[in-house]
# Entry
Amino acid sequence: MIGSVLEDVRLALRTLGKDRAFTLLTVVTLAVAIGANTAIFSVVDGVLFRPLPFPDADRIVTVAAGTLPAPGRTIPGAIPFSDRGYWHFVDNNRVYEAFGGYSGGQQMALIGDGEPLQINAAAMTASAWEVLGTIPQRGRFPTPEEDVPGGPIMVVLSHGLWVGYFGSDPDIIGQTIELTGLRAEVIGVMPNGFNFPSPAIDLWIPLRLDPASQNFGAHSIYGLARLAPEVTIESALADAESLIARFGEAGYGETVVAGLFSGEAFVRTLKDEVVGDARQPLLILLGAMVFVLLIACSNVANLFLVRADARMRESAVRMALGSGRWKLIRYVMTESVLLAMIGGVVGVFLAYLGTQALVVVAPASIPRLDEIGVRGPALLYTSGIAILAGLFFGLFPALRSGSDKMLGALRDAGRSATIGSERHRARSAMVVAQVALALVVSVGSGLMFRSFQRLRAVDPGFRAENVLTFKLSPAPANYDNSPEVLAQFYDELLDGLEDIPGVARAGAVTSLPLQGIAGSLSTSIDEFPVADDEFPPTFLIRRATPGYFEAMGIDVLEGREFTDEDHQERLGSLIISESIKDRFWPDVSALGKRMAIAGAAARSVGVVRDVNAVGLDTEAEPYIYKPLLDSVGGGVAAMAMAVRANADPLSLVPAIRSLIASMDAELPISEIRLMEGIVSDSLSRTSFTMTLLLMAAAIALFLGSVGIYGVISYIVAQRTDEIGVRLALGAGAPEVRWMILMQGMRLAAVGVVVGLLAAVAMGRLMTSLLYGISPFDVTTFVIGAVIFLVVAALAGIIPAMRASRIPPAMALQSG
# Structure
């Protein structure tokens, strides 16, 4: 048996080597389809399927409390824990082996030789390290005895920071480094690939929570826990909701519990938390590529059928000479699987290049990009789809080659109407399937394209052109821990920035648009008092400097911007966004309206346009802007700067660096970006999905048109005698062209109908990815159908023209 198979392989290689055009066309078709599938599968495997690099990672969960809908949104969200909420869960839960907490994204300056380096630090409890279970590459973690208020200041370095900044110093443990406003001892280095809670984190510090803290209002602790043995997500969720219902035992007032918390809990595996909403678009892309593979297999199957027609007499002779039916079938299957494996090998090479390109162009919002590569699972996937593809496109030709009806081809000098009819039906069915599959992919890409257009047309509430942004995090200790001194620093910085030639206006804000939601505070409005048992409304809060709204191009609709006096004299001024005015004072001026924000008395001096805080696909958030110093507080250190330029904003960077270095040599600049780039990033995931779907649709459309062309050419060849008779009996060339063309159009029409029905299901799956457009958008469906009908007509024109030029005498003579 092995010898027979090897003989088939040798014969197949010899035959394919002679038929180079067929072999090259088949291998290229399969290589492109298999390579695209493998590349996308590599991304899906790296993001969705590969386990997180933690022991028993499937038992690690994140825990958060559900909140009532925030201002401007109609759905509830999740909120981190306050100190009291965190300790309530630590002390009373019944389902976790360990419960920890962390906070992330704190920017600090690492000070050494040369310019200070801006780094990102995360704070973690000792129990959070226990939850994750990863062992440091060097050193150790903070102990519970050290992770207390007033405990020693120590840090654990990321592998990247240790290698890149400290040169892999083997003696780093025990050294003291200087960070923003403090000195810390290095006690550990994490292994390469540890990037919790995000790849941007450079080092970790103890969170040092106080069990006796009475903090109820500041929610900044993210819950992280390891499920106890035999505990399910469902039981952990039930336990969390019971603890939230008992928040009153932790000291929360009834009004706060009723006005802030929804009673729901969010308990998700850490992997689901990391993957987020990237799962659905990636699976849709993988499905689209599988469709492309099926279309390619159908095309190759048609090529095999044409080849089998050409070799019909040869196969008939073999059977007449005693070659067994199964031997013929085995040989054809060997040929098809061999071609598929060759295409798979070439496809792996293309997949490697494609995966590298995808990692480069993929948006940063797609998680775990550093874990994407053509690894073992992807190679197994490639091998599997290559073998299945070979079986798929070789099976029907193999069965036909081994059919007893093949002997009829020998008796009829190589022609058999029965075989031709059956082959024609098979080829036609495959063309219908190709058109249907290609139309599904095309409609999906069209929906994403139209959604992308709608997103690009959204007015974000500001003008992004010629705006340079960057972030600063001054160390309060370097400014006497004085809010007034920090405010004075920003006053002087803005004056200096506006003195730079080419700067039109400069300002600062605690959080730029499209960079996430800022914190929210309860607000009491004098004209709209709430009852004692009601929770006052909460609004999202930003602090902004004079010049910010003009620098960002945010229109002031009523009143004025902030002035230096607003914070220098603590006037208690505030500026509200237009949605707040429309909610409370739709028909009167909002200027001078008094309110108290977390107890700080204030009055409105202006109304500005709403801006999109999270993304262009979400509603603009209602905000209250406060100056750097309000009536009772202030002193924000970290700010995002916005500089509007008269020309190229990036040309201002050297002068800006020089100015800041002259004011504070230990203050690094981070995240230097154009605001236009931030807007583009907010579209990046939609753009990425759309681009890949459009590429898949283009391949599918091409393969579908090739399939239609091939089957019509086959029809012309099979009906040469009939066409000659028609022409001899007086049929005109236009009539023949129309007859042939309509055969292709009928196939395309059936494929379009089937494809439209399948596209409806595709639209349902894509609902959450779309913005401003229905998943059953009639325009997209109609355009997709028309494109395929036009392509079918174009693909059929050449064979139809060729048929109409057949000389009747030649056709009759050949018959």
About this structure: The longest strand covers residues 96-110. Confidence is low (pLDDT under 50) at residues 71-75, 412-419. DSSP finds 25 helices and 22 strands in the chain.
